[in-house]
Design goal:
With about 150 residues, the protein is an alpha/beta fold. Helices cover about 35% and strands about 20% of the residues. The structure holds 1,3,4-trihydroxy-5-OXO-cyclohexanecarboxylic acid. The site of 1,3,4-trihydroxy-5-OXO-cyclohexanecarboxylic acid has 10 residues, from loops. One of its GO terms (molecular function) is 3-dehydroquinate dehydratase activity.
Length: about 150
């Protein structure tokens, strides 16, 4: 099935955006990010399914489901970026273009954030652009030749 739908996945603690360490993550809420992504995607004829979970298995389930009815995945795996082989394997199995987004530049932060298990299975990695990173991700997937 080739529905023009994107999966937007946000991992643990990103439900706290807006109040969580605003000096690092800014003051934009997750609801505002999800709304902006949906609006921008709609301009290019895409629907968006937005999922946020603090639970690794729920994120794996959402990624597995995307294989059925999505054409691309935008994911901020948050702390699971640095720990989760399960999320990486789910993304590989989905066989969809993946854009990995981080609000902060993980490479200028603590050493344990410098490695992401997800990056090797992402077509594009965007880090440090704040909420605009999600917009760049939508633009990339909308303009990508499938
Ligand atoms: C993050 C960076 C991660 O290291 C961190 O665990 C997060 C958010 C980001 O968007 O900058 O929760 O993915």
């Amino acid at each position: 099935m080739t529905a023009r739908r994107l999966l937007l996945v946000n991992g643990p603690n990103l439900n706290m955006l807006g109040t969580r360490q605003p000096e690092i993550y800014g003051s934009t809420t997750l609801a505002q990010i999800e709304q902006r992504v949906a609006e921008l995607a709609a301009e290019s004829g895409f629907e968006v399914r937005a999922v946020q979970s603090n639970h690794e298995g729920a994120l794996v389930d959402a990624i597995q489901a995307a294989r059925q009815d999505c054409v691309g995945i935008i994911i901020n795996p948050a702390a699971y970026s640095h720990t989760s082989v399960a999320i990486r394997d789910a993304l590989s199995a989905a066989e969809l273009p993946v854009v990995e987004v981080h609000l902060s530049n993980i490479h200028t932060r603590e050493a344990f954030r410098h490695h992401s298990y997800v990056s090797a299975v992402a077509e594009v990695v965007i880090a440090g652009a704040g909420p605009a990173g999600y917009e760049y991700a939508v633009r990339y997937l909308a303009e990508r030749k499938s």
